[in-house]
Amino acid sequence: MKMMEMKHVTKDYGNQRGIFDVSFAVKEGEVLGFLGPNGAGKTTTIRHLLGFSTPDKGVCTISGKDCFKEAETIHRSLGYLPGEIAFMDDMTGKQFLRFMADMKGMKNMGRMQELIEMFSLDSRGKIKKMSKGMKQKIGIVCAFMDSPDLYILDEPTSGLDPLMQNQFIDLIREEKKRGATILMSSHMFEEVERTCDRTAIIKEGKIVAVEDMKTLKKNKQKIFHVTLASEAEALSLAGEIKGVREVKETQVTIGIKGEMTEFIRCLGNYRVLSLTEQRQSLEDLFLHFYGGDSNE
């Protein structure tokens, strides 16, 4: 069953801004990543699913309901975390969470307390004095505290430190096991890789692919910086191995796709001083998958 669906949705703001002929669906119980660089159209797409914007063309539905005409009904059973959270800054974090719980009609605050402890949230202070990371934690607690069956999350780990990012990934896995349906936008490939079943990739307002995560992982390129004992050895390695991207003095940058056995065997013939892996940037991913033969 399709829980969320967009069919040929266009919203043109002019000057090539907006989204164009966007189509994808999120199945019941699925975690779908929505991946793209800042400004690619992720938030605009989400605003249409939430009924905050109406499309110039196309249709958006959640659980078979029109996202704009039946937004109020949809929101009652939806956990939403916006990219930019609006708070009542004069409230304390605790007061705001209680206010949101009352808005949701919550009677049991047990899940809220679990999330507060999970994210080490000190909710006693005034929101206006809180850091971005602390405000993001409040937003996460608000979205998850009534355990809805459907979530829309816009850049959910923005402002969180690495430890809290890992806690959030654990939370997504927990909700996935419970059977929740999740659409999660991000510009971080690693975050999506660790949580999602499939990923829709948007670039310049257009969906360029909807891929199974197993396919993306299989085709993802690993980038290594190898520092050798001499420039001569660096040049020799560069001439012997495939996937060389750059040679700079004693350092060779190499892109490896798939199995690494031959790469490791080759390194054994040289004096390697250091070997570091570079996180693949989103731009690298786009070039690798969608840039054509010239970008191999």
Molecular structure report:
The chain has 296 residues and is of the alpha/beta class. It has 2 domains: 2-218, Rossmann fold; 221-279, Alpha-Beta Plaits (2-Layer Sandwich). The chain contains 11 helices and 14 strands. The chain has helices spanning 42-49, 71-75, 93-104, 110-118, 132-144, 162-178, 189-195, 213-219, 231-240, 261-267, 282-290; strands spanning 2-14, 17-27, 31-35, 57-62, 65-66, 78-81, 150-154, 181-186, 198-203, 206-212, 221-228, 244-248, 251-257, 272-278. The strands form 3 sheets. A 6-stranded mixed sheet has the order 6-7-8-3-9-10, sandwiched between helices. It has a 4-stranded antiparallel sheet with strand order 2-1-4-5, with helices on one face. It has a 4-stranded antiparallel sheet with strand order 12-13-11-14, with helices on one face. Strand 4 (57-62) and strand 5 form a beta hairpin. The longest helix is centred in the middle third of the chain and has 17 residues, at 162-178. It is globular, with a radius of gyration of 22 Å. The two termini are 38 Å apart. Residues 292-296 have low confidence and may be disordered.
